[in-house]
Structures are given as C-alpha cells and as structure tokens.
Amino acid sequence: MEVVKEERKPQATISGSYKYGWQQMWKYFLYLFIITIVVGLLEAPVSAIQDSEWENTPGIILLQLLIAAYGLLFLPVVKYGGDLLYLRGIRNEKVDVSELFDGFKKNYLNIILANLLTFAIIGIGFVFFIIPGIILACRLAFVSYLVMDKNMEPVAAVEKSWEMTRGYGWKIFGMALLVLPIFIAGLLCLIVGVFFAIIWVHAAFASMYHAVDLEEQKLLNGVDE
Questions:
Q1: Tens digit of pLDDT for each residue in 140-163?
Q2: Cα separation of 90 and 10, whole Å?
Q3: pTM of the shown model
Q4: What's the CA gap between 179 and 185, in Å, rounded?
Q5: What angle is formed at CA 223 by the lines to CA 218 and CA 225, rounded to 5 degrees?
Q6: d(CA 217, CA 225)
Q7: Measured on CA atoms in the order 95, 139, 37, 193, is the torsion positive or negative?
C-alpha cells in the first residue's frame, strides 16, 4: 500500500513559515529561481553605485542621480512584482515570470508611493534610535503583498499591514534573525547555496503573509478550524 505524504499547510509561525516556504520552493523552484536572478541583476546597478568610492566628478554625480532615479522609479516595481509571484507560488497558483513587470501597466503609482512611504516611515524610525526602526520594519513587512495582492493604495496598505502584523511582530523579527545564518549556510555550500537561501527566505515571508491572511479571512467569515 502506497503511503501518500501529506503536504504541510501554511502556519503563521517562524518554523511554520520556513517549513512551508521550503516545501513550496521546491514545487516552483525553476520559476522562483528565474525571478530571483532577474531581480538580482536589476538590483546590481544600485548596489554597485552604493558600494563605489568614485570621485565626485560631474559625470559621476550625474550617474548617481540616474541610478537613484532608477532605484526609486523602476526597481520597486520589479521587486513588488517578484513578491507577488512568490506569493502565487505559496498559494499553488500559476507563476508566470512575464508578469514580473506588470506593475508598470497596472499598479505603477501605488507601488512607487507605497515604497517611498514605507522607506520614509522606517527611515524615520531608525533616526530615532534603531529599535523603533526595527519595529516599524517588522510591522510594515506586508505592504508590498497588500499593494500587489489586494490592490491597496499606499496609506491603506501601510495601515492594513500594521493591523495584520499585530501579534506577529516578534515572529517576523525572529524570521529576519534567521536570514543571516541561512545566508551563511548558503555561502558555505560552494556559494551557489546563496541562491537557494534567497529563494527560501522570500518564500518563507510570503508564506507568513499567506498564513496571516488566511487566519484573518477565517475570523471574518466566522470559520473555526
């Protein structure tokens, strides 16, 4: 008699999110790998200019301004699109890599404004010592998903993320703490393991959002497990 292994269900816990993310990562690995590579390549110009120590010549200043505009007006759309496709994989929905850039056609202004608003709020939090910034970053972790998944406007997405993460802030913080050892383990695996680490982490955070969203829907519908 063949024993059918039961798949995990999404759970709004640290271990549950990473376990479910791990499961779904392998189901959609090729798609998620391509998404990760594309987003990583598009992030490269911003990372390169940030890490550079070039002299402030007129040409370099112009290049820095162009890269800054690129980082504010182009890159967030791709990153938000990547978050949505990860979420689709977590939900066992169709993952179409071509939709990575759909934000330019459908939701561009909300993505740009939501990214700026989130960055500003978290940045202000870090100015007032580090702890408020960490708290804000954890409580606003769902903004990109809400903008892409629920088509929310920036302020509404920030407010909804704050509401949804109530009671889950420490779990999200715990998930963030695990990122470093996961990346170190990836580096030790002949460096190639870094790609697996990146995919796993993104899948885990998408899993946390999905699990919290499911719990919220059950409460709204008055459904008990």
A1: 999 999 999 999 999 999 999 999
A2: 9
A3: 0.92
A4: 10
A5: 95
A6: 12
A7: negative
